[in-house]
């Protein structure tokens, strides 16, 4: 199990939902978990609550989720729906990668109905490159993180094909269920039954992986190769 995992989402709650089972399982196995939300996701505010107040609530929810996993939640200052794709954002994430030295990066698949998800994908790839290139001089020395692994998300489903199946332990699933319930949109939103869908998806992917629970990820095509000596 990786010692440190950094999961980068377009909004608070994205990575907690889609990769939360793996994050919880890894945390129970001693890993350090860092969630990074590039926006607050605050424009899905509940009836009667302002966007500004919901942003504060969502940051508290992100921190509470991370605390249950013994990890850390980081939220960038960008507004929901207005995440820019530029070097300023990429270098900010680059510096976090160099600071926390994750073994593994997780983020969104490249295709999505949400522009912030697409932006998060592009920014994470840039940040991974900048962080790993030691000749780029920043405050901290270079660090290369494996991945990114692209989490399965119904909103990012176009051309997504599960390639990597990561087991989620029974204890990890139970921890995820408790921690994800801290997010209002997961339990209070009437637009989509988020918790029920992702709980069922973890069970479905577990069946493919010959486990009780699992989460599926995609990777870059150029990384999909194996070296097998069939002559031996």
What report would you give on this structure?
This protein is of the alpha/beta class. It contains eight helices and seven strands. The chain has one domain: 3-Layer(aba) Sandwich (Rossmann fold), CATH 3.40.50.10320. 41% of the residues lie in helices and 19% in strands. Helix 2 crosses helix 6 and helix 4 crosses helix 5. It is globular, with a radius of gyration of 17 Å. The protein starts with a strand and ends in a 14-residue tail after the last strand. The model has no long low-confidence stretch (mean pLDDT 96).
Short note summarizing the structure:
With 232 residues, the protein is of the alpha/beta class. It is 41% helix and 19% strand. Helix 2 (20-28) crosses helix 6 (170-180) and helix 4 (87-100) crosses helix 5.
Topology, number of strands:
7
Q: State the low-pLDDT regions, or none.
A: none
- Tell me the CATH architecture: 3-Layer(aba) Sandwich
Strand line-up in the sheet with most strands? 3-2-1-4-5-7-6
Q: Count up the domains.
A: 1
Tell me the helix content.
40-55%
The biggest beta sheet is recorded as:
7 strands, mixed
In CATH, the homologous superfamily goes by the name LmbE-like
Specify the overall morphology: globular
Share of β-strand residues: 15-25%
Q: What would the average pLDDT be, to the nearest integer? A: 96
